[in-house]
Specification:
Length: 263
């Protein structure tokens, strides 16, 4: 069943939960991304197709395409096409039924209600009824995944999700500006202090015992204090390769908003 064409701006792990859910529900989904996305949870981010040409997440396949003329060919094969398009210029050409801003930039980078009959923003930076038709709450807690049809979502807390008592402690940040080179991989079990790579010549050390759940693509340039990875103290390797609870909750909110506004 073809439920309509959806363009999703952004292909990170939270966006990918929505992309996956909508595809499974019969929507034709196209993803727009920047050329070198700095996604951390690359194994569950469709944006990683820009580096590896293609990626399959829980049975759904996405392929990088550098020619907008091939978009429909991929959609007809139930494959998600991913285009490099930072500004959303493809939207005018493709004329989607729905646009979802899932960049999670904490601010609006140009999305507006004129882009499609239904326009949805994820998280802070959007005002429902002003620049988008609905906003989905992305902060963890009681309202995660809530659909907001008027007004703004909660402000960004800046605090990573609590996993077994760890928040900021489990996040890996660059201690200097430079080029990332990794020696470990997502899914590797590490101990606190293990070297998992370098930013230029300075080592990247595991902040605690656990499994590497996210790690930025090797070869990318980062600034000082840039988020480049995270360690999950639960140590469950399969969690590194499946969509998170947060991404699924947000996806549920997106689907609810679409079905409500399509009535």
């Amino acid at each position: 069943m073809n439920r309509g064409l959806v363009i999703v701006r952004g292909g990170g792990d939270i966006a990918s939960g929505t992309i996956h859910r909508l595809t499974k529900c019969g929507f034709r989904v196209v993803v727009l991304e920047i050329d070198k996305p700095t996604v951390i949870r690359r194994t569950v981010s469709f944006a990683n197709a820009l580096f590896d040409k293609e990626i399959t997440i829980e049975g759904i396949k996405a392929i990088r395409t550098d020619d907008i003329n091939y978009v429909n060919d991929y959609l007809n094969k139930s494959i998600i096409p991913i285009l490099v398009d930072e500004t959303g210029k493809s939207i005018d050409t493709l004329k989607p039924d729905i646009v979802i801003d899932a960049i999670l930039a904490k601010k609006n980078l140009g999305t507006n209600m004129e882009m499609a009959p239904i326009v949805i923003g994820l998280g802070p930076g959007f005002t429902a009824g002003k620049d988008v038709h609905a906003v989905i709450e992305t902060n963890r807690g009681h309202d995660l995944g809530k659909v907001i049809y008027s007004g703004k979502p909660q402000k960004n807390t800046g605090i990573p999700g609590n996993i077994e008592g760890y928040t900021h402690e489990r996040v890996i940040r660059s201690s200097n500006e430079g080029i990332v080179s990794t020696k470990a991989s997502i899914g590797d079990i590490v101990n606190k202090g293990d070297c998992i790579g370098y930013v230029d010549e300075l080592p990247i050390l595991a902040p605690l015992d656990g499994v590497i759940r996210g790690l930025i693509k090797s070869g990318l340039h980062v600034t000082k204090n840039f988020k480049i990875g995270d360690v999950d103290p639960r140590g469950k390797v399969d969690h590194c390769f499946t969509i998170s609870d947060k991404a699924r909750a947000v996806a549920g909110g997106v689907l609810e908003a679409i079905l409500t506004m399509q009535k």
